[in-house]
Amino acid sequence: MSQMPEQSRPAEEPPDVGELTPPDRTLMGPGPSDVHPRVLRAMSTPLVGHLDPSFIEVMNEVQELLRYTFRTDNQWTIPVSGTGSAAMEAAIGNLVEPGDTALVPTNGYFGGRMASMAERAGGEVVTVDAPWGEPLDPADVADAFDDHQPDVFGFVHAETSTGVRQPDVSELTDIAHAHDAYVVADAVTSLGGVEFRVDEWDLDAAYSGPQKCLSCPPGASPLTLSDRAMDKVLDRETEPRSWYLDLSLLEGYWGEDRAYHHTAPITNVYALREALRLVAEEGIEARWDRHRAIASDLKAGVRELGLEMNAPDAYWLPSLNAVRVPDGVDDATVIDYLLTEYDIEVASGLGDLAGEVWRIGCMGYSARPKNVEYLLAGLAEALAAEGFEG
């Protein structure tokens, strides 16, 4: 046997690790957003067992609140134990079977993640193309269906990498269902902040993350499937490649029987319940309106600084504002200045837009006038330090 390198040997003394004191940031990036104080308090409440009768009641309440937020009557609406990518993989990995053809978009970073997950599920991936920073054109989607006859169609409703919102959702689902395909929508950056209607838009599956417009720590991620989609899941000829995310097994825990499958992240479910209670108290449509109003102020302030938005107004995404980096300004320097001098977090671009945009979130508890004013003041100072005169 090989010996452990000297520097890797276990320490003879316990490590001297002090009390946890993270900085108090204002989170205005692409996620996470600031967590509401009520959600933090909910996370400090006592644990019970994941099959305790009191927790079963919490599960029921979370499902009802998720149905309200998703605007759906789908029975199969749950929080997946994991981050938004776990909910994404649960949707794609269960609906895409080996040999299925999956149609995914190329107009942003998360379309690429859909493609990767569909391939790992054994699907054949084909694409419908659009430039980064533009939504899908329904005519192009129709052409892709005629060319490839896909079994599953995935699209990103709110593309976090580009700040683009997909309009014409009902047109896309009509095209897909005319070809008897299933539609999966990525609502990670829209659920609870931007208009999103599962039943009215006839979506077969949709998923999200709690750490964005819901202002909840990651760990229990929303997912909803129609009866039609669950029928496909339950009638699969082969088991999904992930045991943990096999929805036919999770049905036993989140369905009527509440049979053991895994130990749910109880504290995260508490947090999600409180975050969804806040959505219900505010009213979902009023919440959409608030996000649009606050983000409109942000957009106006950005333009007053002489900067440009990446997305045209027709498909601007209020919850995630992609702002073009002007010539002569280094995006990373501005990001570092905001973090160091103002304790404000924003992010750079991803993929094709790396170094080209700043991604500024306006989500959930972070979508407040004082946050926007604070950010604009810091951004003006950071730009001046770079010599930018808008």
Automatic annotation (TrEMBL):
Q: Which GO terms describe its molecular function?
A: transaminase activity
Residue span(s) of domain Aminotransferase class V = 49-349
Keyword line: Aminotransferase, Pyridoxal phosphate, Transferase
Instruction: Enumerate the cofactors the protein uses.
Output: pyridoxal 5'-phosphate
Pfam family membership, one: Aminotran_5
Renumbered to this chain, region (Disordered) spans: 1-36
Similarity-based family: Belongs to the class-V pyridoxal-phosphate-dependent aminotransferase family.
Query: What is the recorded name of this protein?
Result: Pyridoxal-phosphate-dependent aminotransferase family protein
Annotated source species: Halorubrum tibetense
- Highest classification ranks of the organism: Archaea, Methanobacteriati, Methanobacteriota, Stenosarchaea group, Halobacteria
